[in-house]
Amino acid sequence: MVDPVISATAVDLTFRTNDGPVHALKDVNLNIAKGDFVSFIGPSGCGKTTFLRCIAGLETPTGGTLTVNDMSPEEARRARAYGYVFQAAGLYPWRTIGGNVKLPLEIMGFSKADQAERVKRVLDLVDLAGFENKFPWQLSGGMQQRASIARALAFDADILLMDEPFGALDEIVRDHLNEQLLALWARTGKTIGFVTHSIPEAVYLSTRIVVMSPRPGRITDVIESTLPRERPLEIRDSPEFIAIAHRVREGLRAGHGDE
Question: Is 140 among the domain residues?
Fold first, then answer.
């Protein structure tokens, strides 16, 4: 792989608690190339969100090295090298959708004209054009999450980190947003790191699937997807899709067996 945009070498993370050390990550090695869509999947508490937070500079590894765009995660965070989408939309109820999306732009000192142009562009990207003057409570859960994605895209970082953004949504809405996320990725060419508990979601979205073991989180398998970039939902019934899903499931079972 030439010049990975995210590179982890022997990353460990141990939290110190009153009950003793908690080993969250152990010897994590991974390179992510520009334009990759990489999903992290594993049992609850396996460290997949912790690793995403390490990439974002929100947690600090206690061992190994981790770089983002050849910078430390802290430097990358200060340089606004990534957008981050949390499990909950986290929209401020007293601000309109447009106001929520432009909040990071206000903090970063973009001009009002630039803010308006960027808000319009990213709301178009997530199919929320015309909703900029609505308040969060006037939108469905799926629309709120799309607004959260728009906010993360507003300052046009090349990397998008997403922590189970669709986990709380019903299956029909989730399928629709999966389709929209793939379309958005195809249009923008972003590098995406995506945490999920769903095997079908991981297989449907990703160019690579990273399977993690129970705590301490280790990478037990990295699966290169052979699916085409254009993926209608019906592809989930194909033998190729089912074979990849089977390998993910076997990797999760094997990881449990190592405990």
Answer: yes
